[in-house]
Amino acid sequence: MLSWWHKDREAGLPERVKAAVRAQEDATERLISWIQLGIVMIFGTLYFVSPKPEVDIAPVPWALSVYLVLTIIRVIWSHLGRLPDWSLAISVFFDMTLLMVLIWSFHIQYMQPASFYLKAPTLLYVFIFIALRALRFDARFVLLAGVVAAIGWGLMILYVIYYDPFDTMITRDYVAYMTSNSVLLGAEFDKIISILMVTGLIAIALARAKGLLVRSVSEQAAAQELSRFFAPEIAERIKGSEDQIRAGTGELRQAAILNLDMRGFTRMAGEAPPDQVMSLLADYQQQMVPVIQRHGGSIDKFLGDGIMATFGAADPSQTYAADALRALDDAMAAAAAWQAQCRANGRSCPTVNGAVATGSILFGAVGDESRLEYTVIGDAVNLSAKLEKHNKELGVRALCDRETYDLALSQGYAPESQKESLDGIQVGGVTNHMGLVVIAA
């Protein structure tokens, strides 16, 4: 029994999922604490405004006072940290004990035989306290509340039967039971059975709900982790898709493609220690990615030291070319500052090249049922990659084709400095000569 009580119900889950579930439970306990405080205030108000005869013993005010103090402690404790299971079990015990004491005191307050309190409608509050424990999504405390309530009511019945040894007040006449202080054991057992059945049903529902909660938290945590592997626009597209995403579906878009690459990185990667290579790569990406995202770019993929980003593909835009060139301008400025910082720190950082091309592209999912990826396909994708490589031939850092530059100007792009135009340039892999614009020399 004790091993069941102490069993780790999140065993096997990642620690981050356990932490998320516990955070939900802690928030629930704070809510329960405030509800309990409201309940004891209601009990106190009802007691003090109701008429009471003069009696020598008045247990209710003492019980309410103790419960109020314990509830205030519980509220403060729940806001300071996690409540241990033993404190929650004690809280359940005091909930039911207070309720039974209140019901028991009715025959003293109204100067009636002990059996008088068995007909008190206050017993219905038992179900409130049981339901209150259901807020935590932990069936253990619901079961504990129901069992304590059933035992408590059983003791209340025994008290009535043995209160007067000469008159147990037991009857089998239902009319007599309803119209007097007689005790009908079948009716009282019905109450206990009702308490236990409600407890069992809620516990079963909670066990199922806890599974859904854990699965929901697990999927949410997984989605948050997976979203780090996708551009925000792609992540939103996946989450918001009404139908299952399948390979072979695509959309035709007008978009800009940006490619960034570090010149000489491959040679350096073969000579430098692995940790140094990966540290440099991570530092470079941390410099470039925020710049791209700040201008509305979506990271399509990392290709070693290469970064390919799209503008207007995942999220259609009317200023995709202008956004891409603004991103390229800022990326070149950030790369220059990064190189200067590296030199100041005695490190060697390769030159960063970049290029932008625009045109019609296909945006969609590729792969098979076990592995899917959103990507872009089209001449602009290939041209951007070729222009990035052509930077080395021209001895510059960033290029775009003339059509892309003119389109960006029409979309509101305003370069801070005059850009050099090159005519009749033969780019490797491109059949016709091209007009190019040097974005960064």
Observed structural traits:
441 residues; alpha+beta; Alpha-Beta Plaits; 8-stranded mixed β-sheet; 15 helices; rod-shaped
Structural notes for this entry:
The chain is an alpha+beta fold and 441 residues long. It folds into two domains: 226 residues, no CATH class; 189 residues, Nucleotide cyclase, GGDEF domain (Alpha-Beta Plaits, 2-Layer Sandwich), CATH 3.30.70.1230. Helix content is 58%, strand content 15%. A hairpin with an 8-residue loop joins strand 7 and strand 8. Helix 4 runs parallel beside helix 7 and helix 13 packs across helix 15. The radius of gyration is 37 Å and the shape is rod-shaped. The termini are far apart. The model has no long low-confidence stretch (mean pLDDT 81).
Summarize the topology.
Layout: H1 2-6, H2 15-49, H3 59-80, H4 85-104, H5 106-109, H6 125-133, H7 139-163, H8 174-179, H9 185-227, H10 232-240, E1 250-262, H11 265-271, H12 274-294, E2 298-303, E3 306-311, H13 320-344, E4 352-368, E5 371-377, H14 379-394, E6 398-401, H15 402-410, E7 420-425, E8 434-440
Parallel strand pairs: 4-6
Antiparallel strand pairs: 1-3, 1-4, 2-3, 4-5, 6-8, 7-8
Kindly summarize this structure in a few lines.
The protein contains 15 helices and 8 strands. It is α+β, with helices and mostly antiparallel strands.
